[in-house]
Structure formats: C-alpha cells, structure tokens
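pipeline: protein-struct stage 2 | run 1193 | Coenzyme PQQ synthesis protein D (PqqD)
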Amino acid sequence: METFLRSELELAVTEYGAVLLDLRDGQYWQLSRTAARVVQALRDGRGRDGAVADLTSHFDVAVERARQDVDTLLDELRSAGLAVR
C-alpha cells in the first residue's frame, strides 16, 4: 500500500535539508537532507520504491538500509498526520 503526503504541506529546501510546513495548523518540521529527498520523491509521485532508489543513487547506502530508513520516515510522517495510505 502506497503512502501519500497530504496536499496541505509545503516543502522549502534549505542548505541543510528542508522544512516541511503543515498549512492546516502552521506546524513545521526540519528535515535532514536524506529525509528531504524521501519527501521530494513522494511529492513527485515516485513512492516508496522511488525514494529508496533515490537514496541509493545519491548516498553510499545499501538498498536494505535505505528501505528501512524510508519505512521509518513514512511511519513517522503517518503518525504525525502528514501522510496517509
């Protein structure tokens, strides 16, 4: 089952990663460069597998580790109400 970001989110890229702003309530989250790449992949419609592929092509990380990291971030985004299945 694929995860989608809520449409009320804005992403602003910074030199350290990105800031994710929830327009519904004004809360924001600072994202690392890795998390920012995952969120951008989701926004681009590439989904979980696309995010994993992006991480493995830009960072020196094994596919299984990238998959675990993406899944952890997706769980956190869903728990915060920023993403839905």
